[in-house]
Design a protein that fits this description.
binds thymidine-5'-diphosphate; 5-stranded parallel beta sheet; globular; Rossmann fold; alpha/beta
């Protein structure tokens, strides 16, 4: 009997490491929480690779500049989706997978869900299409855990203060669709998400993240 041929796009696992994504709308406080988590893990003796999208590689920094800092209308929605996917493909291939293969903890500020929420939901390019594009780009790599810092459009706007980039400049209705996009993803796969109210006290949020991450560390020891 012949073995079935494995699909060429088969999902590849996360090596020996632990892969955590921190997601949420603009102004949700992702970088604060991921930095706190990383610091705590390092204190516990783990090797942590803290990274981000877009811009976690040299190529990614160039792509980040192109996609975020042009004039309004300078990047068409499909081009935008492809640039984020290109950034992700290179980031996973050269930073994330190698670190996971070494058994490290990788914490990324934003990952695939940002594309589904911003390009799929808010730009209306389609949840499934955008997700499939990123899964192709990453050869199926998914986080063990996604921490979603849920923020309303209004709270996010108030918290981010000065507007930095093309996407932050979008109207509240856009950011409402982003929020709903994230919440839809979390509700489809609750075991792999920790959804927190971004408005809560930062110290309390960090505690909740540590509680959720602790049991995941078992297989790294
Ligand atoms: P981020 O680096 O979190 O913003 P900043 O450092 O300026 O606070 O993200 C930059 C923007 O890119 C943000 O508005 C969300 C957007 N984005 C997408 O639209 N799709 C994606 O796939 C990713 C990763 C980010």
């Amino acid at each position: 009997m012949t073995e079935p041929t494995p699909p060429t796009t088969a999902a590849r696992g996360a090596g020996r490491g632990l892969f955590i994504a921190v997601e949420g709308g603009d102004g949700a406080g992702k970088s604060t929480q991921s930095a706190r988590l990383g610091k705590w893990l390092e204190g516990e003796g783990y090797v942590v690779r803290h990274t981000r999208e877009p811009g976690g590689t040299a190529l990614g920094r160039t792509l980040r500049e192109l996609v975020l800092h042009g004039e309004d209308g300078s990047v068409s929605p499909r081009a935008e989706a492809l640039i984020f996917a290109a950034d992700r493909a290179h980031h996973v291939a050269t930073v994330v997978r190698p670190a996971l293969d070494r058994g490290e903890v990788v914490i990324t500020d934003r990952y695939l869900d940002s594309s589904v929420a911003y390009q799929g939901a808010a730009r209306a390019l389609g949840h499934e299409e955008v997700r499939a594009l990123s899964l192709w780009a990453t050869e199926g790599l998914q986080p063990h855990l996604t921490v979603l810092l849920d923020v309303s459009a209004e709270q996010g706007r108030a918290r981010r203060g000065r507007v930095h980039d093309r996407l932050e400049r979008e109207a509240d209705a856009f950011h409402d669709r982003v929020r709903q996009g994230f919440l839809d993803l979390a509700s489809r796969d609750p075991d792999r998400y920790l959804v927190l109210d971004a408005h809560a006290d930062a110290g309390r949020l960090a505690e909740q993240v540590r509680e959720r991450v602790t049991p995941l560390l078992g297989h790294l020891r």
